[in-house]
Amino acid sequence: MPTVPPEVAARIRRNPETKHHVVEGSTPVPFFGNQPEAQLATVGINPSRIEFQTSRSRIELDGPSRRFETLKSLGINSNAEADDAQVAAIYARCIRYFDDTAVAYWDWFKRLEWIIQPLAGVSYTDGSACHLDLVQWATDPVWSGIKDREVRTSLAAKDLEFLLGQLAAPQLRIAYLNGAQVATVLGSLIPIEDRRATFRDGTRWSFYKGQYEGTAIVGCSAFIQNAHIRTEDKAAFNEWIAAECRKDLDALD
Predict the structure, then answer these.
(1) pLDDT cut 70: percent of the chain above it
(2) How many CB atoms lie within 10 A of CB 176?
(3) What is the pLDDT of residues 20-54, one digit of tens each?
(4) What does the DSSP 8-state code read for residue 126?
(5) Is the dihedral of CA 97, 98, 99, 103 positive or negative?
(6) Distance of CA 64 to CAs 73, 181, 213, 216, Å?
């Protein structure tokens, strides 16, 4: 089993501030992929319910389809009960997430892969990129569907502190923000500039840049998995985002 950094072990053992909307039986996802060695991290909102359950029937994933450990798979009642071996099992699942794209939620992550490869020559699959979230809990409904602001504030409070620690990792060079909501939340914590640019179809999007503890931060207001772009324009849109973000990287150098 891998050695788990103390701050990650502490995050794994921390129970949610509220159980409202947290996927039943799930464990926190501190990162997706080889975070200890990744040079680039994409940043999203929070893990999908589908990381732990089947899409329609909400049955816990098990066997070869399991992506992460759960309270049931570990035989515990809460994250706080996890011993060192169980914490290491959770950590190992996170590191190995992209080892098999047939198991990972690749339909979601491949859209980001198509941006980060031309942006920085990195990939989730070779460990040079990883994914981080503002909130490390999977929720049901999705984050935007949680209407109680107090619940969202409670779930995010300490998770944002953990994310900032990850963004300060010494090996990390670039963080890519996936969407306006991520940029808005992170921009409330650290200075982030924004500018507007126009894609060839006439749509205008915001681009973000900043720095945090030596990590260059770039991104686009398009939440790429839900961006309403014509099928024939999607490849060009991804390339355009990467090119615009490279401009911001050059400006940050």
Answers:
(1) 100
(2) 28
(3) 899 999 999 999 999 999 999 999 999 999 999 99
(4) T
(5) positive
(6) 13, 33, 39, 37
